[in-house]
Amino acid sequence: MLVELPYTHLPHYTGAIFYKMQLMNYIPIIAHPERNAEIKRKPNLLVDLVQKGALAQVTAASVSGMFGKESQKFSIKLIKHHLIHFIASDAHNTTNRSFQLKSAYNHIESYFSKDYLEYFKKNSVHVVKGTEFNSLTPKFFERKKKYFIFHLGK
């Protein structure tokens, strides 16, 4: 079941809702996590949700750079950390929010490989058919080290 999170935060009850969904045999698929401000600040929150059985899809326009370099870079990082299972068109119309799948597929193939691109395409088929597929083991993001500089005067 496709779940769209708020853009500003990750609700504190997300894990509990996802757990209840899974008890009812629904798999939560997180739509465009690359747009969620809290996941951007703390991407290991997404790792935790994926490890607990949620899936995630990025928007093709994010991967292709249509939403800017920052969104593109973060989408690529999520893919590198095996947190993304699907690439979605998120097309709303043919003028200002059109299909960007071809462009996203080209970017994925050039950043990663043709095999990785096929992984996303096959996953899309499996989810539509309701059949199982292999997902990659998610990788945690390393915590950024904080450095403090002290100036000791005379």
SSE run? EHEHHEHHEHH
CATH topology: TIM Barrel
Tally the structural domains: 1
* Low-confidence sequence ranges: none
Count of runs of 4 or more consecutive helical residues: 7
C-alpha end-to-end distance: 64 Å
CATH-defined architecture: Alpha-Beta Barrel
Q: CATH superfamily, please?
A: Metal-dependent hydrolases
Number of E-type strands: 4
* β-sheet strand percentage: 5-15%
CATH class: Alpha Beta
Name the average pLDDT: 90
Q: Per the principal axes of the C-alpha atoms, what is the gross shape?
A: globular
Largest sheet: 4 strands, parallel
Radius of gyration: 17 Å
Describe this structure in words.
This protein is of the alpha/beta class. The protein has one domain: Metal-dependent hydrolases (TIM Barrel), CATH 3.20.20. It is 44% helix and 9% strand. The protein contains 7 helices and 4 strands. It has helices spanning 14-23, 37-41, 44-51, 60-64, 69-80, 101-111, 114-129; strands at residues 2-4, 29-31, 55-59, 86-88. A 4-stranded parallel beta sheet has the order 1-2-3-4. α1 links the parallel β1 and β2 (29-31). The longest helix has 16 residues, at 114-129. The N and C termini lie far apart (64 Å). The mean pLDDT is 90.
